[in-house]
Amino acid sequence: MIIDAHIHLWDKINGRLGTEKVQPVKDGIIRIGGKNIQGMPTWFSDCCNPAELALAALDDAGVDRAVVTQEYLDGNQNDYLLWVKQQYPDRLFVHGLIDFTKPQNLDHEFNMVADMGFKGIKCPAMFLPSLKPRIKLDDPPLMLIWEQMYERDMVLSIDLAQGSVQVPEMRRVLKRIPDLKVAIGHFGMAGKKNWMHQIQLAEHKNVHIECGGIIWLYRKEGPPFRTAQQKIKQAAKAVGAGKIMWGSDYPRTMVDFTYRQSLDFVRHGCDFFTEEEKNMFLGENAARLYGFNYSKQKKPPRPLITES
Hints:
Strand content: 15-25%
Number of strands: 13
Largest sheet: 6 strands, parallel
Strand order of the largest sheet: 8-9-10-11-12-13
CATH topology: TIM Barrel
CATH architecture: Alpha-Beta Barrel
Oligomer: single chain
Number of helices: 10
Number of domains: 1
CATH class: Alpha Beta
């Protein structure tokens, strides 16, 4: 079984990047502030990113399940993802989103989202160090959220600021709540200065690292992303293959590469893994963290017309 530990879905984009508004244009183009950017593949003609399109990509590549995360970039998609959760409960795990840039509202927001039935919360934490006053992960309003998440057996998906700037804060959170379930995104921004400090957080019992977006970190290199493979090897050696997970960052990475390419550099590469370790990385670890029923049966990708 293969599980994608990092995809995005949205109904209509209405987000922000820092202080800049993010809005849809057409043909996969989004406007950030006053600049048009290709934010998704061109065939997303209405700039919507529905579950059905993602599931078609998963089926084509032979991927069984996926974990849906969120970003302030896209705007809050809780209502749409609640519908997705109800429609595809066996295939998709979805995270709710709350606004961590406004600590005074967090408790109320969290209870609303948790009561909706979400079993995970996304924290795009990389923006917090730049705010004035700075918001820390172990500030009392945030600690209250992490404690309630642990009590409700929820998963925290968190993207940290590049490097080690938030690592001490995260370690203090984990020291206080050692059994909190955590998935750290974007493979700790692999290759950036002090990136292994984020990977080493997986030394804590219930912390995992997912590699959603690692191919855009090495987009200039292209398939088979040999440096990305080396970084995965380095992380596996440091914290063990049982603590890292494959993810695609669908559909953003698909402006450069196909969905299959985001998977095949692992499926047909990463020869440093044993077969058992590769299965753990590609699905077994995510199944354990997110509560999917895991099967050792493989779902083959569809045959391509260009192969015949």
